[in-house]
From TrEMBL:
It comes from Streblomastix strix. Pfam families: tRNA-synt_1. It comes from the Eukaryota. Residues 201-234 form a coiled coil. Signal peptide: none annotated. GO terms for molecular function: aminoacyl-tRNA deacylase activity; ATP binding; isoleucine-tRNA ligase activity. Keywords: Aminoacyl-tRNA synthetase, ATP-binding, Coiled coil, Ligase, Nucleotide-binding, Protein biosynthesis. One of its GO terms (biological process) is isoleucyl-tRNA aminoacylation. Residues 229-284 form the Aminoacyl-tRNA synthetase class Ia domain. This is Putative Isoleucine--tRNA ligase.
Length: 329
């Protein structure tokens, strides 16, 4: 399995190809037995659903995570190099996240339950052996820990592309962060109005199914029309650089994926949403423990914050503005 060492601490599952016969089962206790004993080749499909023990205890200690996770399978796993077993840490890669959702390893509603790296690129307090240390400076210690426990078969350095910060020339860390999205793929709900007549006949059921198909086709047509309108609106737009129009942005519009509108940089334009954590005795709103207020204008912001003549709307000014919470509202 090829990976950066810090992601091993947040592993939730292994991903295998169901048709490949490259996986081996060992009746052994440690790595020495692996290297000196015969093996049995089995299909990847036979590994699906099997329990595997986490390499590290840090994530397993969390209440939301089981110390034993199941293996999932799919055609994403390749065997053209390495072992053909993909290690999945869902909060450090988009593909890993999708695999864990589709494989029911997680639902996506748990929050950042298995993200062992903080916003400063250091290990979180859950990783008590390396807490507060820069993850890139812990590689050797993590590898040594695996060797000492005799669970590491082989380690090597490989040359591959990796993102670096253009300003500081330091390696970047790809990790999940809380974000705001525009739900571009919003699914229009079906008409669920109850039928006045209760009819279980085959004719009625067939008619009901036909109406449902018509409604689905209608929703699909509306979605395609919306995408076409977005593409038409994109044509007269001046993009800098111009290639973004039909490449990055154009392809995004065609796929109609959810759009991340939030940014973590300080100088970004603020999203006009204020939030407040709910008290224990307060009722949950849509299952969330946060109460949100979306401010629609400068006039409304002045009214809610009691701050007059607001002209500057960047974070160094608005971050300190507080909205007085009114329980009756």
């Amino acid at each position: 399995m090829v990976n950066t060492s810090q992601t091993l601490l947040s592993n939730l599952t292994l991903y295998v190809h169901p048709k490949y016969s490259i996986f081996r089962s060992f009746d052994v206790k440690d790595v020495d037995d692996v290297l000196n004993n015969s093996v049995i080749t089995i299909k990847g499909a036979n590994l699906e659903g099997k329990l595997k023990k986490n390499l590290f205890k840090y994530i397993s200690d969390l209440e939301q995570i089981s110390p034993m996770n199941t293996t999932v399978s799919g055609c994403y796993a390749k065997r053209d190099s390495r072992t053909g077993i993909v290690h999945c840490a869902p909060f450090f890669g988009e593909d890993d996240y999708s695999v864990c959702i589709s494989g029911s390893v997680m639902t996506g509603k748990e929050g950042l339950i298995a993200c062992s790296v903080d916003d400063n690129g250091c290990f979180t307090r859950e990783v008590d052996d390396y807490a507060g240390r820069c993850v890139k400076k812990c590689d050797k210690d993590i590898i040594k820990s695996l060797k000492d426990r005799k669970v590491l078969i082989k380690t090597e350095q490989i040359t591959h592309s990796y993102p670096f910060c253009w300003g500081s020339d330091t390696p970047l860390i790809y990790k999940a962060v809380p974000s705001w999205f525009v739900n571009v793929e919003r699914i229009k709900s079906e008409d669920l109005q109850p039928y006045i007549k209760i009819d279980c006949s085959e004719e009625y059921q067939a008619n009901k199914l036909e109406k449902r198909k018509e409604k689905q086709a209608e929703n699909q047509k509306e979605k395609e029309d919306e995408i076409n309108r977005l593409l038409e609106s994109n044509e007269p737009t001046l993009w800098v650089p111009n290639k973004i129009k039909n490449s990055r942005f154009g392809m995004w519009v065609k796929d109609a994926k959810d759009w991340t509108i939030s940014r973590n940089r300080f100088w970004g334009t603020p999203i006009p949403i204020w939030e407040r954590a709910l008290e224990d005795e307060e009722e949950n709103i849509n299952g969330l423990r946060v109460y949100h207020i979306c401010v629609r204008s400068i006039a409304e912001l002045e009214e809610l914050t009691c701050v007059k003549r607001i002209t500057y709307l960047h974070r160094d000014a608005v971050d300190d503005m507080e909205i007085k919470y009114q329980k009756e509202a």
